[in-house]
Amino acid sequence: MRTISDLESFVGGDRSEPLLRPGNTNCGGCGMSIALNMLSRAIAQRPVQIVIPACCGIVTAGPFPWSAYGAPVVASTFAAAAAVATGLARVAAANGEKTRILCFAGDGGTYDIGMATISAAAERNEDLLFICYDNEIYGNTGGQRSSATPLGASTTTTPEGKHAPKKDILGIMAAHRVPYAASVSLAHADDMMRKLEGALDARGFRFLHILSPCPTGWKSEPSEGIELIRLAVDSGLYPVIEITKGRDVRINVEPSFSEDALRSFVRRQGRFARSQVEVEVIQEGIRSEWEKLRAAAGPPRLPSPPGARMVPDRFAVR
Amino acid sequence: MMQLISANHASAAAVTLAARANRKGRGFCSGVYPITPQTECIERLCEETIEKGSVVRVESEHSAMAVCMGASLAGARSFTASSSNGLAYMAENVFAAGFFRLPIVMMAVNRTLGPPWNIWVDHGDTLMLRDSGWIQIYCEDNQEVHDSILLAYRLAEDERVLLPVMVCQDAFVLSHTLMATDIPGQPAVDAFLPALNLPHRLTERPRVVGGLEFPHETEMHRKQHMEAMGRVPAVYASVQDEFERCFGRRPADPVVPYRLDDADLAVVAMGTTSSTVRAAVDELRAEGLRAGSLRIRMFRPLPEVALRSRLAGRRKIAVIDRDVCPGLGGIVWGEIRGLADPGAVVQSYLVGLGGGDIRPEHIRRIYEDLAARDRAGDPVFLEAGR
Ligand code: SF4
User: Fold this and answer.
1) How far apart are CA B48 and CA B181, in angstroms?
2) Predicted confidence (pLDDT) at residue A309 exceeds the cutoff of 70
3) Chain B residue set in contact with A, beta carbons under 8 Å
4) Which positions in chain B touch A2 (Cβ < 8 Å)?
5) Which of A21, A23, A72, A133 is nearest to B210 (CA)?
6) Which of A252, B119, B196, B349 has the highest CB neighbour number within 10 Å of its CB?
7) Which runs of E-coded beta strand occur in B225-328?
């Protein structure tokens, strides 16, 4: 962790140091840390500016004058990340700068309080990449429900287990016909890198959804985060897909729909213990979701070769 | 060039000139959202061509200010306009822009906060934001609205200040009333407004703007903010000089006395009420009453030194508020009563609330009521229940 004054001599564009530096305050086993490390590699030499709303993602930077981020960051108000990023992106464009503008927000700042702002930025097709690390809970305030909290998960405001299933955020974003929207699995590194790099290079509004294990909220072992994501993907609970222009749906990882995987996913997390949500009920949700996805994606296609870059659509930036 | 235009259009004209003046800098970017009675201003802005920059039509006032923050953090000149409940909805980001110390300029049309819904003038909406760390200027006519916006950029962007400025004007009384307004040419504005060079703008250097901090750092930042506010009166005076040099007319002082020096009765007011008060002063003087008035043009920072010296020796002072602080009285009165001489009568009058008329006879009643008092009483509502 460096102070602002240590950084006075820093020349931008040096990505030899990580985006998330030592000294950050993330909990051990936080999926966000893994996501940021992968993002760091994907960014490589690209100049970036990042907007992070009030959430764990900004707390992790540490207090003034320190920064655990190796990039310029604006801490925005909770609802406003996509709008602050709009201002940054417009001025970068007006000055012919190549700086990529990113938002990095939790599910609260995306699914809930930030929804109107994100929807509007998507509708305007602003040239920014919005990344949602979805830990399915208000982690920063100690674990309350969000509209990303899944059916049956206990939180401090749904102690008996949440009654409603989570919002289909990717469907919502794709319905804006944004150039690119994709879900990212922390357990599928090649697919993840391809998506991060492709989304960084593409123009117009891009949206990435990352299911992010939160040992604190999920009541899970910090060391099991990646394994939990693998189980979520394999069971079909977390489809790994990408949607271009809001209609071209591509399934990137074929699940086995294993009931064992689903049972293991649920059993390894304390948050499902109290509601004892039945695996059959969750499976019913998975089935209907995949019927919808199959109908949209058409017959199974060859998976993208590892490392293949998404060919971005060149959307005119207004 | 003289034009017969509303204060809304006068604002739009001023912003367009200021925006174009930054074409050699990092340009202009503004987030806008409509609300009556401000809408004409942003409509006009959306018609203008700004060679380097854009106007983003966003989904809410909250986002309008957020776009301005992003734009300003990126080093561009920025502007938005709002009013009433729009300002209330925007409030979180108004404070954020203040605390970021971004030199954003906002044109605020003073309108009653609802519910019940009322579109007419009341100062409660911007006074609600008095502690947001913005400079606040209240205008009296359309020329002043126009000039104050140009002046606001120069003041906001001065490196001794670096604070956002709210230029306030009365709903409909100014926003929709046409007055002859002199709009300067671009070269004069270019000379007055140098390219913005925001020292804390975001570059590629890693740092977190606006993240967490500990209590002592917050105290330090608040103190720095106060100090910047403290430098405003001196910088304002130099900006007045510069304005006069570039445009040939001098913007008004932060406080404007009228026939006050020998006055037995002083009435303090803000916005367009001040013009009516001056007319009443002339009438009362003609009748032999030693009436005077004081207009507050700048409410934040409160021009305390000027106010104290202008109020010194005045034994009877009326403060007119076009707003209410329930549980106190008038908001302006709450601030002024501590600045008068000890023992002076400082009485609160609430008038023209929700856009009710403020006619010379109202002002006359205030002077008469004040003359008859030997101590201040409860705040007086002039027209309640009529
Ligand atoms: S509370 Fe959850 S999301 Fe927040 S830092 Fe801890 S593990 Fe990460």
Assistant:
1) 19
2) no
3) 26-27, 29, 31, 52-54, 56-60, 62-64, 66-76, 78, 92-93, 96, 202-214, 217
4) 206
5) A72
6) B349
7) 255-258, 265-270, 291-296, 298-300, 316-321
Residue whose structure tokens are 């409030």: B91
Token pair 């909805």 is found at: B89
Confirm or reject: Cβ of A30 under 6 Å from ligand 1.
Answer: yes
The amino acid sitting at B234 is: A
Residue A212 to chain B, least CA–CA distance (Å): 22
Residue A91 and residue B208: Cβ atoms within 8 Å?
no
**pLDDT tens readout for residues B284-316:** 999 999 999 999 999 999 999 999 999 999 999
Residues of B within 8 A of A12 (CB-CB) are 203-205
pLDDT score, position A299: 73
Residue A32 is which amino acid? Answer: M
User: Which of A48, A64, A115 should one mutate to test binding to chain B, selecting the residue with the greatest count of B CBs within 10 A?
Assistant: A64
CA gap A106, A70 in Å, rounded: 20
What does the pLDDT look like over B331-343, one tens digit per residue?
999 999 999 999 9
User: DSSP letters along B137-197, please?
Assistant: EE-SSHHHHHHHHHHHHHHHHSTTT---EEEEEETTTTTT--EEEEPPPHHHHHHHSPPP-
CA–CA gap between residue A106 and residue A290 (Å, rounded): 25
CB-hemisphere CA count at 13 Å for B32? 25
Helix orientation angle between A259-267 and A225-234, rounded to the nearest 10 degrees = 150
What residue spans of B248-338 are helical by DSSP H? 273-286, 304-311, 331-336
DSSP helix, strand, coil percent of chain B (3-state; round to 5): 40, 20, 40
Mean pLDDT of B55-78: 98
Written as one string, the DSSP assignment of A63-117 is: STTEESBSSEEEEE-TT-HHHHHHHHHHHHHHTT--PEEEEEEESIIIIITTHHH
Q: What is the pLDDT of residue A9?
A: 43
A314 vs A60, more confident: A60
Distance CA B188, CA B128 (A): 35
Whether the upstream peptide bond of residue A303 has omega within 30° of 0, thus cis, is no
**Total-model pTM:** 0.95
ipTM: 0.96
Residues 113-142 of A with CB under 8 A from B: 116-117, 119-120, 124
* Average pLDDT across chain B, whole number: 97
pLDDT tens-digit series, residues A101-124 = 999 999 999 999 999 999 999 999
Compute the distance between CA of residue B26 and CA of residue B306 in angstroms, rounded to an integer: 37
- Letter for the amino acid at B103? P
Cβ of residue A56 lying under 6 Å from some atom of ligand 1: yes
Is the pLDDT higher at A299 or at A165? Answer: A165
Q: Sort residue B43 into left (φ over 0), alpha (ψ -120 to 50) or beta.
A: alpha
